[in-house]
Write a structure and sequence with these properties.
The protein is α/β, with parallel strands linked by helices and 201 residues long. It folds into 2 domains: 102 residues, Formyl transferase, N-terminal domain (Rossmann fold); 93 residues, 3-Layer(aba) Sandwich (Rossmann fold). It is 34% helix and 26% strand. The chain contains 6 helices and 9 strands. The chain has a 7-stranded mixed β-sheet with strand order 3-2-1-4-5-6-7. Strands 8-9 form a two-stranded antiparallel sheet. The longest helix is centred in the C-terminal third of the chain and has 24 residues. It is globular. The chain starts with a strand and ends with a strand. The structure holds 5-O-phosphono-beta-D-ribofuranosylamine (GRF). The site of 5-O-phosphono-beta-D-ribofuranosylamine (GRF) has 15 residues, from helix 1, strand 5 and helix 6.
């Protein structure tokens, strides 16, 4: 059965678009049911508009707890029977309750080779540390930040005089390759999580 996917974005949405393109070409056994954004100005919302995909904006109240914010989103998603949540440049850390509710059903992409350089500014961290290779990682989301079981990774070289932008662009090209692939594997029930590791069957 085709999987029902919710994509969470905050900005540019290029990974969302890469996945959408693969779905539109019939290469993924899934359908984007809804796009959730915490930013009404997210450029990526245009792809939802163009493709007639429903989108919703959830703004976090100034005093609102993370738990409450994600509870509201959870209640909304509940009726929609979502099989997979794809975090595609979503700027907020999920609540523990939300992660547990969708255990092993949330994917994220991170612009470094985890477990190196988790959290924010991963490309800058890599440049600062002077690594010769960085890359990108698709992983399942657990209660930690960028700590969940790793699905796919691709290395990219880091050049001596790279700027953050140059390295980010080199990594992004690979993100657009592995994220749709990981979503395809998920939708084909090919991802098995065993002892904190992902086996692709
Ligand atoms: C990507 O670099 C991704 O690795 C990180 O956020 C960025 C999102 O870019 N999680 P986009 O919105 O998909 O273009």
């Amino acid at each position: 059965m085709s999987k029902r996917i919710a994509v969470f974005i905050s900005g540019r949405g290029s990974n969302f678009k890469a996945i959408l393109d693969e779905i539109n070409q019939g290469n993924i056994n899934g359908k984007i049911d809804v796009v959730v954004s915490d930013n009404p100005g997210a450029y990526g919302l245009l792809y939802a508009l163009k493709n007639n995909i429903k989108y919703v904006i959830y703004i976090k109240g100034k005093e609102e707890s993370r738990a409450n914010y994600f509870n509201r989103i959870k209640l909304f998603l509940h009726k929609r029977d979502i099989d997979l949540i794809v975090l595609a440049g979503f700027g907020k850390i999920l609540s523990v309750n939300f992660v547990q509710h969708y255990e092993n059903k949330i994917l994220n992409i991170h612009p470094a080779l985890l477990p190196s350089f988790p959290g924010e500014d991963a490309q800058q961290q890599a440049l600062k540390r002077g690594v010769k290779y960085s890359g990108c990682t698709v992983h399942f989301v657990d209660e930690g930040v960028d700590t969940g079981p790793i699905v796919l990774q691709t290395p990219v070289p880091v050049h001596d005089n790279d700027t953050v932008e140059e390295l980010s662009n080199r990594i992004l090209i690979q993100e657009h390759v592995i994220y749709p692939r990981a979503v395809r594997y998920f939708c084909d029930d090919k991802l098995l999580i065993k002892g904190g590791k992902v086996i692709i069957i």
